[in-house]
Amino acid sequence: MQKVVLATGNAGKVRELASLLSDFGLDIVAQTDLGVDSAEETGLTFIE
Q1: How far apart are CA 48 and CA 27, in angstroms?
Q2: Which pLDDT score is estimated for 39?
Q3: Which of 1, 3, 37, 38 has a C-alpha 20 to 30 A away from that of 9?
Q4: Any idea of the CA torsion for 12, 31, 6, 4, to the nearest 10 degrees?
Q5: pLDDT of residue 2
Q6: Tens digits of per-residue pLDDT, 1-48?
Q7: What is the per-residue DSSP string for the chain?
Q8: Residue 14: predicted pLDDT
Q9: Alpha carbon of 38 to those of 19, 22, 24, 33: distances in Å?
């Protein structure tokens, strides 16, 4: 099973995406499950 790490600590998002992708045999985990800190988001847009 291939592991996909989501750049989120939101358990609800992880559950929702895991459910949506369940047919693909992926192990969906949050970055916080692996001890990865959240990135500092200082920009006002996605480009920044």
Answers
A1: 30
A2: 79
A3: 1
A4: -120
A5: 94
A6: 899 999 988 899 999 999 999 999 999 999 999 998 887 878 888 787
A7: -EEEEES---HHHHHHHHHHTGGGTEEEEEGGGGTPPPPP---SSS--
A8: 93
A9: 23, 25, 27, 12
Q: Which residue has the tokens 């609800």?
A: 12
- Per-residue model confidence (pLDDT) at position 8: 87
Quickly tell me which residue has 């996605």 as its tokens.
46
Cβ atoms within 10 Å, residue 41: 8
Cα(32)–Cα(36) distance, integer angstroms = 5
Look up residue 23 and give its amino acid: D
Phi-psi label, residue 42: left if phi above 0, alpha if psi -120 to 50, beta otherwise: alpha
